[in-house]
Amino acid sequence: QVRLVESGGGLAQAGGSLRLSCAASGRTFSVNAMAWFRAAPDKDREFVAATHTNAETPYVGDSVQGRFTIARDNTKNMVYLQMDNLKPEDTAVYYCAAGHVSPAFLVKRPSSYHSWGQGTQVTVSS
């Protein structure tokens, strides 16, 4: 099993920035993909961004393209989500996920991941 702990959520104003962190521990050697998803009230869990060891560039969701950046530090077993130019519609609980995903394009599916963090709240005010 892989244990994931998110941090860095909070309140931001529209146009502002936040940086989320996710610390992984346990059987991390089995992980080839790490991702961020988010869930807003009364909405399905939405793919935000992911990294995959077989992909040259990260995968980024359409709604955050150009504003959010994902980065992975394998030496520290960390994954980060830099969120810039935040919008009120970015308000959600953000979850870190880890898994062995194959093929790589399946990183956008929540069912591809076996480990999830507890989530961190991000609230963006207008």
In short:
With 126 residues, the chain is mainly beta.
Q: Which helices and strands occur, and which strands form pairs?
A:
Blueprint: E1 2-7, E2 10-13, E3 18-26, E4 33-39, E5 46-52, E6 59-60, E7 68-73, E8 78-83, E9 92-99, E10 115-116, E11 120-125
How would you characterize the overall build of this protein?
This protein is 0% helix and 50% strand. It has 126 residues and is an all-beta fold. Strands 2, 4, 5, 6, 9, 10 and 11 form a seven-stranded mixed beta sheet that branches. The model has no long low-confidence stretch (mean pLDDT 96). It is built from no helices and eleven strands.
Which features characterize this protein?
126 residues, mainly beta, four-stranded antiparallel beta sheet, seven-stranded mixed beta sheet
Structural class: mainly beta
Mean pLDDT: 96
Helicity range of the residues? under 10%
- What characteristic shape results from the CA principal axes? globular
Strand composition percent: over 45%
Largest sheet: 7 strands, mixed
Spatial gap, N to C terminus:
39 Å
The string of secondary-structure elements, in order, is EEEEEEEEEEE
Radius of gyration: 13 Å
Summed up, the helix count is 0
Low-confidence stretches: none
List how many beta strands DSSP finds.
11
